[in-house]
């Protein structure tokens, strides 16, 4: 597949898409019915349907009966950890194997021409982005994910969370299930913005940003505090009229849904003539420039808060202007303080 029909490659070999990133078209004014209808299937396919189906499968085959969930027991919690870990290994591993180990599509549609395995860095454990990211994913990522999930299941089993049945409340639960990606987007934006404040960035979020050139395992390469905040989306179901299956969907959405944003390729080739959009560019730009695109543009929060970068030269200029303004502000404040110090 000729990726130069869809973008350009610079002399370093980095590929940039022609198309800019756009927030979901539901926000366009005046309303663009055709664009919304074209976009709508993407709200479900393929990822959200896969994550929702995974939650149903968990409930059917993985989660123990309610009587067991009433007390936290190491046996079932370990079993849940094992299932989460195996699923992460297989799901993340499939992307890693296809795109980064076997390199089946070379660097076609790859934003950064370099592969992390070729770049050793002291920022990572064992100087390897992949080993560091995998260890962080399994040691703290899946552990905290499982811990919060077990706690939520225990809360449901003991009547501490509102548990509606699908038979009695199909419409309410359908609405809550539909809102899962929206809850995730708003929560992720707020938490992400919070951990970009200087103190939390230095001690917590910088771990995730060690991956300047993200690859699939970067998805859950986070500090444990960030894991805790990230998987905290589950707690909304302590107050929402919901159901444990939807709570599991919310957690699987966070756990498995981080992959598309970190895949490092704009499109994944399927067979000889099909391309699947990864929708990774907005978050790739976040890893490249740090202070843009805190969200994933399902809701244009970054546009509203002035941190949106759509990948265009205009987006770049807006970002540079914002940086310049902040630098000037800091310099003015420093000059003011120095002047004050000199008069004292
Ligand atoms: Zn990231
Ligand atoms: Zn960040």
Features:
4 strands, globular, 344 residues, 2 domains, iron ion binding, binds zinc ion, two-stranded antiparallel ribbon, two-stranded antiparallel sheet, 12 helices, transmembrane helix, mainly alpha
Please, could you describe this protein's structure?
With 344 residues, the protein is mainly alpha-helical. The protein folds into 2 domains: 3-306, no CATH class; 312-344. Helix content is 57%, strand content 4%. It has 12 helices and 4 strands. The chain has helices at residues 33-44, 47-62, 66-69, 74-101, 129-157, 170-194, 198-209, 224-230, 244-262, 281-289, 301-305, 313-343, and strands at residues 7-9, 15-17, 267-270, 274-277. The strands form 2 sheets. The chain has a two-stranded antiparallel sheet. The structure holds zinc ion (2 copies). One zinc ion (ZN) is lined by residues 192, 196, 205, 209, 286.
Summarize the structure.
Helices cover 57% and strands 4% of the residues.
- Low-pLDDT ranges: none
State the separation between the terminal residues, measured CA to CA.
69 Å
Q: What's the Cα radius of gyration?
A: 22 Å
How many individual β-strands?
Answer: 4
Q: Return the string of H and E elements.
A: EEHHHHHHHHHEEHHH
What is the share of helical residues? 55-70%
Structure classification: mainly alpha
> What ligands are attached or bound here?
zinc ion
Tell me about the largest β-sheet. Answer: 2 strands, antiparallel
Mean pLDDT: 94
Strand content: under 5%
Shape: globular
Protein name: Sterol desaturase family protein
Organism: Paracoccus litorisediminis
Domain Fatty acid hydroxylase: 179-307
Subcellular location: Membrane
């Amino acid at each position: 597949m000729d990726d130069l029909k869809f973008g350009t490659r610079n002399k370093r070999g980095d590929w940039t898409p022609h198309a800019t990133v756009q927030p979901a078209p539901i926000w366009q004014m005046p309303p663009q019915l055709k664009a919304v209808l074209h976009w709508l299937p993407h709200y479900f396919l393929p990822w959200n349907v896969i994550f929702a189906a995974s939650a149903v499968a968990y409930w059917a085959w993985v989660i123990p009966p309610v009587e067991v969930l009433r007390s936290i027991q190491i046996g079932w919690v370990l079993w849940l950890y094992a299932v989460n870990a195996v699923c992460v290994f297989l799901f993340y591993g499939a992307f890693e194997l296809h795109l980064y180990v076997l390199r089946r599509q070379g660097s076609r549609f790859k934003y950064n021409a370099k592969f992390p395995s070729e770049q050793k860095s002291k920022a990572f454990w064992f100087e390897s982005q992949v080993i560091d990211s995998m260890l962080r994913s399994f040691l703290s990522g899946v552990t905290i994910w499982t811990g919060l999930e077990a706690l939520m299941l225990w809360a449901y089993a003991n009547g501490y969370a509102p548990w509606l049945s699908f038979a009695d409340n199909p419409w309410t639960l359908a609405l809550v299930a539909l809102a899962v990606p929206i809850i995730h987007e708003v929560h992720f934006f707020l938490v992400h913005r919070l951990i970009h404040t200087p103190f939390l960035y230095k001690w917590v979020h910088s771990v995730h940003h060690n991956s300047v050139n993200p690859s699939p395992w970067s998805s859950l390469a986070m500090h444990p505090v960030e894991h805790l905040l990230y998987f905290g989306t589950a707690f909304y179901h302590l107050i929402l009229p919901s159901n444990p299956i939807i709570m599991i969907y919310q957690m699987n959405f966070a756990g498995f849904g981080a992959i598309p944003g970190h895949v490092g390729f704009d499109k994944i080739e399927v067979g000889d003539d099909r391309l699947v959009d990864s929708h990774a560019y907005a978050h790739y730009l976040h890893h490249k420039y740090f202070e843009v695109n805190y969200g994933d543009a399902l809701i244009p929060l970054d546009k509203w808060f002035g941190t949106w970068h759509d990948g265009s030269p205009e987006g770049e200029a807006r970002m540079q202007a914002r940086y310049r303004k902040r630098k000037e502000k800091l310099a003015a404040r420093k000059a003011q303080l120095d002047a004050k110090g000199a008069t004292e």
